[in-house]
Amino acid sequence: QPLRRVLLLGEGNFSFAASLCGATGTHVVATCYESEEEVYGWERAAESIQRLQERGAEIVFSVDCTRLKDYFLPEKRKFDCIYFNFPHCGRKAGVVKNRELLARFFCSSAEVLAEEGEVHVALCNGQGGTPVDQPRREWHNSWQIVAVAARAGFILSNVHPFKAETIDGYKCTGYRSQDKSFCVEGALNHIFTRSTPLPYFKPMICEIALESQKVSFHIPQVLVDKINRGFLGLNSNHPVQTVKEKLTAELSQAFPLQNTDCCLSPLHQGHLNEVCHSNLFWISLSPGQTPSTEEMSHGLANAVSFSHIDCCRDADKNGWVDAQEGCCISKQFYLQPSLLPCAQAIIQRGDFLLGTLHVLSGPVFRKCLIAPYSMPVFYEIVFVCAVKRGTENSCIQMLVNSIKTSIHSLHQTVSGFKLNISLQEAMSIETAELNDFAAFESQLSKIEYFICVEVDTSGSCEKGSCVGVIRTAHDELVSSELVVVFASLNLDLLAMLICGIADWRMLWTSDRRFLHQFPRGELRLFKSFSLYPPSYEHDISFWLPDGEQFDEIAFHTIARQVSGEMVVSIQLMDSFQHPETGQKSLCYRLTFQSCDKALSRQEVAEMQQRFRKEINQRLRVTLR
């Protein structure tokens, strides 16, 4: 087992380093900014240095924390932990100079830190600018440590009190660059780790088999990182898969089960009642023959779903031609926005057994406005059961009871809050109260009941708590003697509510620290590994083209695409109509924030510039 290498910076009298030295399996490299001659003139420094030397530590004087790689050979640059207690430019330096010191320090640390290493920075009370500081300074008067660290690719993963009194022999020193102590009451230790880099997604083409042919299509850019993730794979320990397994296991106690996932097609063609076209991800197939409407609606057995794609590859490395570049496309398709048409196709074909619960699950895709519970892609599970007319209420009750039991069972392993599960009649809920999932489901067909899961923290119902709907088949789908019950559940939203995951984007993170919290598929209360991420606001104003309706969903979708889902809020700030020309102008405020990655002000500014360019070209607005 290699020794854990620890680097300490700005040590002053070396009393902190001396307290750490000697820990089993740890090699300490203690440094200070001052020269050896200066340090030996400080109280207790000689004693601490002697103790370090006796225990095999390295001591380096005159080290500039902004040029760390200059002091260590390449083979000795990878430290597992870097400590910098109470950094300061010295004398009466203000917050701006100290922010810049931190920025340069973090950039330097990135060059000598091991891949999974940590950077510990202790600051006096109020300096950091996080909600943990009490009292909290105004943002402009703080050191803004989380935003500063983001510039070097670091995220704040933990913060806790710096308890100087518990550190054996430690005495803080260095007040205004002198051998004087300072107040550390309420000081905080900030622990930073590396962020996964911001993604860059190349255009991607998907090939799937339909009947005897292979067809291909361009993956919408906003979905490129969401395709073929395998959340519901056999060896997956993703919480979405755990929720699905528990649901089906519980329902198998009440119904005979038949899984039909292998028959699902990722594409759909045809009319979906009142669903707005702007909510759909439209697809052009190429280059082979376009499959028929009948083939698509029936969900062919050899169609390959997105979790089992034959081939995905970069669009710029193959010979396929986009439809907009001249390829002849005769029919338009869209990505499956719901599994309900697939479930209805089972009934239409007569491929069902009376009283058997057919289970369909997979990803569905919907363009939507940016909001905390609005997901452009999520995993849906649909249960379908045909029963004799007059027994449908009993079937619905059995379904709901089994769903409640499984959710309660899952939640028993997660502490910290209580979940309330209820069945509410659709007639009792106003449209404005529905979350995005429920509102879209309402467009597909009539709903009898909503399944709601509420986090019981304040006694009030959360807007995002509708996780499922129950409906019965239309008369034209079934015979006069039968009724078909459909139950649709949003697995992503269920997993979020059960595990206390506040941001849907976290379910799709590529950071391994997310899945490490759910070993062997065990559900636990999620603990974020990126605390108090900085947010940035940018306003954008533009004139609308004359005589055209503004497509707000397209506006939000472009924001999702150019930012890689870093836009968390879009607010309409102002609307103006020119009194003479009648032309209309809109002003929106975009808030950028990442839930799992370091996001700097410069990166956001570049996203905003791309966004301005894209809406100008694609929505034909005139920027102001």
From TrEMBL:
GO cellular component, one term: mitochondrial matrix
Catalytic reaction equation(s): tRNA(Phe) + L-phenylalanine + ATP = L-phenylalanyl-tRNA(Phe) + AMP + diphosphate + H(+)
Organism encoding this protein: Crotophaga sulcirostris (Groove-billed ani)
Intracellular or extracellular location(s): Mitochondrion matrix
Protein name: phenylalanine--tRNA ligase
EC number per UniProt: 6.1.1.20
The keyword NAD is annotated on this UniProt entry: no
InterPro entries reported for this sequence: aa-tRNA-synth_II/BPL/LPL, BMT5-like, Fdx_antiC-bd, Fdx_antiC-bd_sf, SAM-dependent_MTases_sf
